[in-house]
Specification:
By secondary structure, the chain is α+β, with helices and mostly antiparallel strands. It contains two helices and six strands; from the N terminus they run βαβββββα. It has one domain.
Length: about 90
Amino acid sequence: MIKKYYKKPVILEAIQWTGDNTDEVLKFGQGKIKYQIVEHQGKVLSENLYIETLEGKLKVNKGDYIIKGIKGEFYPCKPDVFEKIYEEIK
């Protein structure tokens, strides 16, 4: 028999990576988020964040949210998806 279910309400912590808050994001990630900077002749070509997730290593783009799950795991989420699913607690 097919049944319907609803997702239990869960309070999660998250932070959006703006590019200007890398130190704060790394601290939030508790060592599970890695920062990589690519330079050539003293010029920054790219800045990247990577998260070791249960599914493997995932890249975080500027603007993405990083969510801390209910078991302490971290994963990235695109802003448009995040804003449809989550609402800030005030």
